[in-house]
Design brief:
It contains 14 helices and no strands. It has helices at 8-25, 28-35, 41-60, 67-81, 83-93, 98-103, 106-117, 124-141, 150-173, 181-204, 212-237, 242-248, 251-263, 270-285.
Length: 341
């Protein structure tokens, strides 16, 4: 008889909800090109982050305190303040989808950072999944006319690394006791937006004139593509392994290509369709782990981590620093699943 944990279905449900985030993010390119003023990456990044963050702060009425002031600022810069401008800079300077391929490297960065931050050893299966994902995305977005730009390549890789490190640190630090993911999202969006604000003013100057289409585009990016999407993203990080969440990012360029085909009339070649299938395969492979060896006569040993939200992955050692006073602990666990006749 196979013994499994009771968190399997909630785990899958959480992954499915979290996967909506990169799918929504895939619409950013179409909205940016069709609705927003051109050549204003910092202003666009600012409009995505700061208004949404301030609204969430007003709704939750919760501000970070003590140690979490610095942590919220650091996470806000990594996940929002640095990531958004680098993302748009790479997109503007790298035609032909090269930026999408560089973004697809984020799961590999997450595997690397998880070694030092979370003490998680990357499995061969997840490394393979990362390589498969990058290959699949390259088939979807690369064109024969694609050209490399040094600044764009550096920005794309730095953006992927920034988001990956932010994801891993979000997992390590968890959140303060009594603070929900909506408040955490508001903290990070506000911190990131405040980081972008002086850069946008210094580099791009006064805001551009906005018509009704631009206002609608910014509202969509702020409410759906940022506030709601990041709430689902940070909620998912709190419930499943950070590296598994990072692999969901491979869905973003796939979503962008599908939206371009459906909404913008862009043609999809058979090679692109094949790339979508491969990228999806890499995403799914990144959610699995090798079957661990059974112990105690094949009886599953399940720690309390499985009972408090499923933050540990089956067969995975999850280690974290001891919780500080007033913080919601990340419970270490070792879950072994085997068979017993």
């Amino acid at each position: 008889m196979t013994i499994t944990t009771a968190t399997r279905n909630p785990y899958v449900g959480t992954l499915a909800l979290t996967a909506l985030t990169p799918i929504v993010w895939g619409s950013t390119y179409a909205v940016t090109t069709e609705f927003l003023p051109p050549d204003r990456p910092l202003f666009t990044a600012l409009m995505r982050a700061l208004p949404a963050g301030l609204v969430l702060l007003a709704l939750t009425r919760t501000l970070p305190k003590g140690l979490w002031i610095g942590r919220a600022a650091a996470l806000g810069v990594l996940n929002i303040g640095a990531f958004f401008p680098l993302l748009f800079l790479a997109a503007y300077r790298l035609p032909g989808g090269v930026a999408g391929v560089l973004g697809a490297v984020a799961p590999m960065f997450a595997l690397l950072f998880a070694v030092g931050v979370l003490n998680e050893r990357p499995t061969g299966r997840k490394v393979l999944a990362g390589l498969i994902g990058v290959f699949g995305v390259s088939l979807v977005v690369l064109r024969a006319t694609a050209q490399l730009d040094t600044v764009g390549v550096i920005a794309g890789l730095a953006g992927a690394g920034s988001m990956a490190l932010g994801t891993v640190l979000t997992k390590k630090w968890g959140r303060p006791e009594g603070v929900g993911p909506l408040a955490m999202t508001g903290w990070q969006l506000t911190a990131g937006g405040l980081f972008i604000l002086p850069l946008a003013a210094l580099i791009e100057g006064a805001p551009p004139a906005l018509d009704g289409r631009a206002v609608g585009g910014y509202l969509y990016l702020g409410v759906i593509g940022t506030a709601l999407a990041y709430w689902l993203w940070f909620r998912g990080i709190g419930k499943v392994p950070a590296t598994s969440v990072a692999f969901l990012g491979l869905l973003s360029p796939v979503s962008a290509a599908a939206i371009g085909w459906v909404a913008l009339g862009q043609a999809l070649t058979p090679l692109q369709v094949l790339g979508m299938v491969i990228a999806l395969g890499g995403t799914l492979l990144g959610q699995t782990t090798a079957r661990p060896k059974a112990s105690n006569g094949g009886v599953a040993v399940v720690s309390e981590a499985a009972k408090v939200g499923g933050t540990a992955e089956v067969g995975e050692d999850v280690t974290a620093d001891g919780p500080e006073k007033g913080e919601r602990p990340a419970v270490p666990a070792r879950i072994l699943v085997g068979t017993k006749s």
